[in-house]
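Please check the following for our workbook:

***
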Amino acid sequence: MRIDHFYEYWPIIDRPDVEWPGGKRLAVYIGLNIEHYETGKPSVGILDKAAGRDPDPINEGWRDYGNRVGLWRITELFDRFGIRPSVLLNSDVCKYYPRIIEEGVRRNWSWVAHGRNNVMPGSKAPQLRMEEERHYIHDVLATIQAATGKACKGWLSPLGLNQTYDTIDLLAEEGVTYVLDWSADDQPFPLKTFHGEIISVPYSLEINDLSLFLNRGVTGPEFGQMITDQFDVLQRDARRISRVMAIGINPFIIGQPYRFKYFEQALTYLSRQKDVWFTTSDEISAWYMLNYYHTHVQKLREAEMVQRFY
């Protein structure tokens, strides 16, 4: 039974430096959420008053636009810039949208497990017992591996599955090496676990179209400016201490034409910058685990910060 936090407080100014491949100082990746929403069940929507309807053509149709149209607009953009997204994938997508999986495999997308589907608001998700959660995680990972031919090394919890105090250990047992759930840092950092080795890789709830457009009323031009502003500051900071920049997007939101225009402009700006590692969350995790994980854990131990885990 875990009785303390999932990771130690370790301010970024106190850590040994991290250097990305080729001496790069800033790593940038795009987290592309590709999800399935079961019909007749409420979830994120454009019109809350209709969320209780069954069927709900307003909200369900709005979300379906992402997988039917918006995703392919984004895919063309990624192809143009040679971007491999980190696909945050509901395993149900493998069943209901095999064409997406086919095109992603052809493009060598990076696959990150994102639970089974996204139908339930997280605040109402029931707490799973350990064996139920173990079975859930195993089923999600096995389904994605069977469809894509690759085992997922990363995990982002879906709306319908809150983390429990067992989640990190259960993921590590299954061979998952990183999670995106903890948006607590600009660098990867070790997580405490009873079994195996697992880290947090930065993800962003700030530079994320879902939270910004639906919850804060941000406009397309504002979102594009936020991406470039985030990049400029992180690139400046990275001259002293290396960083990771994550951009979270959803096809049914940023794939809308009037928003997409400004996302395209922002990526054009980023693509022109030098000394940046445009990569995936998988590659960030693998590089950190190979070159820095054990050194960082040892530093924590030497500081007597870690007593029970790792």
